[in-house]
Every structure is written in C-alpha cells, then in structure tokens.
Amino acid sequence: MTKVFAHRGASGYAPENTLEAFALAGEQGAQGIELDVQLTKDGEVVVIHDETIDRVSTGKGAVRDYTLEELRRFSFHNHKKEYEGVQIPTLREVLEQVKPGGMEVNIELKTGIYWYPGLEEKTVELVKAAGMENRVIYSSFNHYSVQKILELDAEAETAYLYSDVLLNVENYAKNTGVCGLHPAVYHLKMADFLESYRRSGLKVRVWTVNDEADMRQFIEKDLEAVITNYPDRALRVRDEVNQ
Ligand code: G3P
Ligand code: MG
Description:
Elements: E1 3-7, H1 19-28, E2 32-39, E3 45-47, H2 68-71, H3 91-98, E4 104-109, H4 119-129, E5 136-140, H5 143-152, E6 157-162, H6 169-175, E7 180-183, H7 185-190, H8 194-200, E8 203-207, H9 212-220, E9 225-228, H10 231-241
Parallel strand pairs: 1-2, 1-9, 2-4, 4-5, 5-6, 6-7, 7-8, 8-9
Antiparallel strand pairs: 2-3
Bound molecules: SN-glycerol-3-phosphate and magnesium ion (MG).
Magnesium ion binds at residues 34, 36, 108.
C-alpha cells in the first residue's frame, strides 16, 4: 500500500520543518516524514529548507552564517501566528521525537547551492546514533551527495531527487546503487512514466502531491509513497481507493 509521507512535516497546517509539523504528521497517521538538512556556522545539522532564514523566521540571512545558539533566538513560525516562538530543530531532536512512533524519515541533503563539507558524514552519524538506519531514506538533488552517503554506509537506503525528466533514470539509478526515485509530481503529469517506473522495481516516492486527483492516481498505481503537505488528505484518499 502506498505510504503517505509528510513533506517538511504536515506543513500544510503547521510551520514547515518544525517539531510541531512532524508531531502533527504522526498524529494524522502518516507513515513517514520528509525533511531538509543544512549546516550551521558551528557545524550543527539543522532542519530547514531554504539556505536563508528570511522566509520562515523572524530573522534574516544565511543559515550557515549563524551558530545554532544564534538561530535559536528567532521564531520559525512561518507566518502562522499561533505557532509564534517555535524554534528551528536539529536533526538529532527530530530523530529523537519521531523514533517511538515508527515513522520513516526521508532526509533530503540540501547541498544544491552550498556543498556543506561534512554534512553527509554528520547526518549518517546522527542516524546511526539514533539507531534509525533501517527507517531512513537519504535523498538529494545533488547526486554526488547521494553517492557520498553510500560511500559512508553501503547499506543506506538512498534515492535520487529530480525535477525535470531524466533519460533512462531507472538504469542510471540501478547502475549507481540507488534504489529509490523521487520525481516531481509535475513531470509525472506531463507524460506516462508511471508504467516504466513501476516495471523498474525501484521505490518511487513522488513529491509534492497535494491535489486529490493526483494522490488517487499514484495510490492506484501503488507507488511506494506520496510526499504531501496534507497527510490527512492523502490518507483519506487512500482509504477511499482501498475500500
Ligand atoms: O524531497 C522532496 C522535496 O522536498 C524536494 O523539493 O524543494 O521541497 O525540498 P523541496
Ligand atoms: Mg525537501
């Protein structure tokens, strides 16, 4: 059965990439969460999507120009008044919080703009320290980062992220030891890649699926997961499909 992953947590309701959004994902019944990681100035792995804090917090500037302690001074409520005061979480904190609930965790390494030397090593260490190796999927638009993860942990579950169509992406993934594909929803809507993806046996988790008709299509095709800002909506659609 297609799993429902909460994109940046249940970010349609709670501020993205916060402990509150991940908790809500669990309460809504998601099977997994997706989150983005970057490094602070003092080398802490923090969970945030943009390379700057401007859009989601009360501060301004680049994540990598602040220490963790400095980032803690800002509120990351992302214009949702009722969440004022929520802080940026570290990856360690998120893993600790979600571990008891059993959700899977898709860690997206945000190494597209800055390469953040050491991010892959630190991320793998944190996952191992939490004892969550079997519940984590590492992905990145930077495929070098994905390969770095495999060098660090040959058993790691990995996936290639991509927005535009990649030719022969199934062979590319298989030939480079990657078992997951994370394509953008709009590319799957442009052409019929679904059958080819299904035949490949790779684990396809499509993002960001917020539209009910799209959810239904991917759930009916039995993809590995839909990654959505609205896990409750996807779970309802899944119930309808499986009735
Ligand atoms: O990992 C799926 C999705 O999060 C990739 O795009 O920009 O939302 O991180 P983005
Ligand atoms: Mg992401």
